[in-house]
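=== RUN LOG ===
request id: a7f3
mode: sequence -> structure
chains: 1
length: 236
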Amino acid sequence: MSIVDFAGIEVDNITLEGAVSKVKEFVASGKPHLIVTPNPEIIVASQKYPELKEIINSADLRVPDGISMVVVSRMLKNPLKERVSGIDLMLQICKETNFKIYLLGGEPGVAVEAAGKLTKKCPGLNVVGNTDGYFIDDQKVIKGIRDTKPDILFVGLGAGRQERWIKKHLQGLNVPVCMVIGGSLDVISGRKKRAPKWTRKLYIEWLYRLVSEPKRWKRQLALPKFLYLTLFKKVV
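=== RESULT ===
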């Protein structure tokens, strides 16, 4: 795979289909792998947190989760093949495989609801366990994951925390694939709505999110910072 650099964050130039194939390879190997989903917000945050940048760059697969990344890559003359969002990759994995999965994250009840929705949509999928994101005892969670022996662990603990948590425990989890998924469990469970397809096609998904969740306005400031960092090669 070729790589596209966004302000020091290396992203794999891969399609959704290619990413699913890589996941299948990772599971078949039996060895632990980390999959991350860098987007403009995470790329901006990584400028202040070198540890986060190192975790992302050292991951086994780094999919481009942001349409603005596709646009910027074209302007940089190193075009990404397509956007591969974390939720799209997660759902495609669940549809195409009969892997055993474990869901970690969200408010109490969210992972349970998401598990129910996934098993209905994806016949043959085996959700072997789930835990909400409000845990205190890491070792208790790790034991629960190890006991169920999933092929894939989907972790939605929020940007930054989820990457650090997986990196810290990757070798001890005994799971072939650990993938960060942000707030995907909220959407899959039905507690939050995903932006309509037409907003994504028009590159205004950010606007839909801002209108539907006004409290996100501070997070949306990451987009102009991302453009500044990537197009002008400056560090803010």
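=== NOTES ===
The beta strands are 3-6, 9-12, 33-36, 61-62, 100-105, 126-131, 152-156, 177-180.
The chain has 13 helices and eight strands.
=== END ===
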